[in-house]
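notes to self, project folder thing:

trying the whole complex as one job this time. last attempt i did each chain seperately and stitching them together was a nightmare. two parts in total, labels are on each line so i dont mix them up again. if this works i'll redo the older ones the same way
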Amino acid sequence: MTDTQTPAPLDVRPAKQGAWKRLSLIWIVPLLALLISLGVAYQNYADRGTLIEIAFEEANGISSGETVIKYRDVEVGRVEKVTFADGLGEVIVQARIDKEVAPYLDDDASFWVVVPRVSLRGVSGLETVLSGVFIQGNWDNEADVQQYEFTGLDQAPLALARQRGTQIVFRARDGQALSDGAPILHKGIKVGYLEAPELSGDGTSVVANAFVESPFDRRITSATRFWDTSGFSVSLGAGGVALNVNSLASLIEGGIAFDTVVSGGAPLIEGQIFDIFANEETARESLFASPDVEMLTVAVLFENSVNGLTKGSEVRFQGLRVGEVLDLTAVVTEDRDSAQVLLRTILAIEPARLGLGADATPEQALTFLSNFVRQGLRARLVTGNILSGSLVVELIEEPDAPTAVMNLAAQPYPQIPTTSSNITDVADSAEDVLQRINDLPIEELMTGAIDLMDSIERLASQDSLRTAPASLAALLDETRELINSDDIAKIPGEIRQSIADLNAIIAQAETSGTVDRLNAAIDSVTGVSDNLFSATENLPQISAQLEALTIKANDLDLDGLLVAARDTITNIDGIVQATAAQDLPQSVAAVVENLRTVVSSNDLAAIPTDLRQTIATVNTIVSQAAAADLVSKLDGVVAAAQGAVTSIDNAAAGLPAITVQLEQLATKANGLDLETLVAEATSTLDSIDTLVGSQSTQDIPASLSAALDEVRVFLGDVRNGGAVNNLNTALSSASEAAQAIEDAAASLPALSARASALVTQTGNTLDGFGERSRFNAEMLAALRDIQAAADAVSSLARAIQRNPNSLLTGR
Amino acid sequence: MAHAGKGLITAREAGLVACRNCGRVHAGDAGFCTRCESRISSRDPASLQKVWALLIAGMIAFIPANIFPMLKTRTLFEHSDSTIMGGVVELVGHHSYGIAAIVFIASILIPVGKFLAIIYLAISVRNRSVLNMHQRHKLYDVVEFIGRWSMIDVFVVAILSSLVQLQGLATINPGIAAVSFALSVIFTMLAAQNFDSRLIWDADRIQK
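result (full assembly):
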């Protein structure tokens, strides 16, 4: 301390106060900060939710801190950590779930990762392409014992826990029909889904879980049958061809349909197992059989080929299905000197179906069968389907069968003796029929007809007709007598009458338009063949009647008919060429030339020529004396044929009628008393001759001038009466008729060509159902295309599933 | 020598007291500044208490500022919360070392450094120090100067939050950490301000 510039004394002693008294209020600040911090921390801790662990096969794009967990599309949690389980076996996703929701996470809670999915039923999870995947949770709204560890599902479960419905299990022989997510349809309405099928524990079948939504599950009882509706089915069964196509989705994805036909089944229980049948038919058939019933197994040894018999083929007893073929094997039996290969067919027979009551045992059925065998029961193969040639085993009673007993000791199963099989191969018989039709000597028939025409023409243009003038002198004498006679005077009127009649006949033939109708009929046949594809739905009945038809057609005496027709034609030919007929022109010529000589009028001079033609035509017409009848009958035939092709049902019944009619026709044609007619004509001419040669004829020269006068008067009458004109008209009509017939004959090749086209088309149609046909090939190609498309879609879906970003990046 | 060995004499030793507001020197027993009327005292007896209290508050606030998310970024595709340290790591991951360094220095290094500096100064007032009083005074100046720059983080968050509000497409919201960080900075600055730098000289004397 110095004495210079002593500063003012300042108390610099540190304040000696109590520690608490010195405490400043400022300490409240850190205290508050601490409290607030702690408060925030606690708040955060309290809010952070319940930690759960979900085990997944793979993380699928889950990232910690970002992937959210949603329930009913509301965010209820967030993934906190993604780690591996011990041994890298699976991915453990740790997540925080909101406290409000956590208590509901009991043992029914399930989690799956939602990824974009493209399926036939649509696109789902597309939002995850942008936002990234999220985990969807699903649990019911009842809080149970809370769980903290879960196993994630590979994909969305079939039914959300809140959905009402029933879970059932399907069992099938193979998994082709069962695809993941395939719909369950009831009367075409989607009522549920399938899960991915899995091999059953023992590997013998495929099982798939399915979910049927409420209230449709009430439609299902233990008597419900499910069947596969996937794709389309072409079944060529005993009922004919049936093509069933369902929805496009089920075409590719498959589907299961069901129906409950029989009432009284037990109510559905959760997890009940149902078998899937191959199609609706078998499903419905199975309704009448309990799948658990014990079967009687017997064997049948067939000697002949069992081609067409397959596993599952029917076994019929008195027309009813009693079982099916279990297996087909070949066995060699050693006879004394030669070995024989027999085909052992194992049959499974349901005792209940033999009429033994619902609780019949196989032993009872065996006793029953062996009793029947003693009475003549035999097994045989019969055609089950005439189109496909499939066989069924039939148990029939043959009363006159040689005595046999059932070999109960045979190994491996008791044997039922056989009898000869009854296999009808409709394809072969149809081919036979067509072959026979092809082989029919139609051309020969035509040749015969042409020959007949030629003969008639030859007859008409015979020299003897031209040489008629030679007998002019004789006839001149006779003409007077002829002209004098009253009978002769009546002749022109009668000729006129008959010509008018003929005219009417020919007009009728013309107006009835037989040829046109035949053409129309053929057109409709062609139309029918065109529509044959569309007509396949009629095939069930048709095939049955086709069989009868083919049998009938086989039985038809077509050859006989043809022979008869040919006989007729030959007969007619013979008649035409007969001496009587040959004489006829000569006589006529004589008469005509007499007349011509007698009557020198120019009008009359034309008559012989015309008459010659007329007689030729008349001959033709006369040879078709039943022309009117024929035309109407032909009409009937054509109408019947037309009706027949329009409805092949009627054809089956109509063809016999046709053949009967044809036969009658042939018989009638055969029976035509042409010879008598010719004989009568001959006798008429003869009597004319006689008349001419009679005594009074001798007086001709004397009364020649008078006769000439009278002739002139007669000719005047004739001219006035228009007989000549009538004759000319009749002749032109006859000529027209002949032309029409020729036209008809000309249209016959067209007819046969059309018939041949029809046959070819029918053949093609039948071939179309063949195995290696174009239809099949195209169908297969179409199916391959569909499959390729489905593959493409599924690979796209896979690609998107694996790498959702590719949608954005375009890779 | 009654005066400091280096020939320095404190105002207190000279019986004087300066107004810290306007700088006018008064007699040692003056209670108020005659010029600006602010309260003057030769030494603030509660200074150290205030420093410690505010420092602790700042440190407490600094904990949630680092634990909780600073920015809540929500875009169309994702939703992310980033803490300060997380942001730094992310920036390093994106090879933005410069920005990462700035964020790290401004948000971590400087606040922590300030804490340490203030703690050191507060302790060195009572105890012997390695640094001499000039160095410590310089340290105090640096702490006071640099304190305000720590608020840069908070400003960034505030600007981002107000600018990036594109409904649906992208939004950025401040997290709890932003508030905590701001509080931490404020407390630290207050602590530094409440430190009576004159105590540095006193301490030197006591040590002598």
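what i see at first glance: The longest helix of chain B spans residues 97-126.
need to look closer tmrw
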